[in-house]
Amino acid sequence: MLLKLYPDNPNHREFRQIVDVLKDGGIIIYPTDTVYAIGCDITNNKAIQRIAKLKGTTAEKGNFSLICNSLSNLSEYAKVDNSIFKVMKKNLPGAFTFILAASNNVPKLFKSKKKTVGIRVPDHYIPLRIVEELGNPIMTTSINDPDEVIEYTTDPELIHEKYSGKVDLIIDGGYGNNTASTIIDCTDGDFEVIRPGIGELIY
């Protein structure tokens, strides 16, 4: 199913529809401030496994992150000291994924072997509103191919052609970017850029 959302007049009923799909264990494709992404409710293990299979990996090996709608509940999902939190606050919402030590609230299936978790607060009203309506973060992974940039990663209609029948809902929020977020590893108490992207870090 393809659902078109307009930024000037977002409809509450449509967001409830998206949340109902997530709560039923569905997986969705949605726009972010970078590339389009695939997501699900982090509390649903079957949905996480479906996304991993779609990406050709496993839940334990996949590079998945959490989308939060703010940093207010960050301590529920990650361990972070004040200096790192201050930098995150300066840069979020924005095109960054911060890798942090995971808390015990992050589902075991979702954590990497290093017990870390990626945190995203995108500068885009659709994922932020979805998380707000859902009441907890969603798991996210970009649909872009790491080796080549192709049109189906940016054009919602082409995304629908490729993924129709593989996911439960595709949200058309207009054309997306073709560059992913900047990934920053903070697990050693410093800021190590492990994948350059759109975001440029402000200290």
From TrEMBL:
Record SUPFAM superfamilies: YrdC/RibB
YrdC-like domain mapped to chain residues: 12-199
Pfam families named in the record: Sua5_yciO_yrdC
NCBIfam families xref list: L-threonylcarbamoyladenylate synthase
Protein name (Swiss-Prot/TrEMBL): Threonylcarbamoyl-AMP synthase
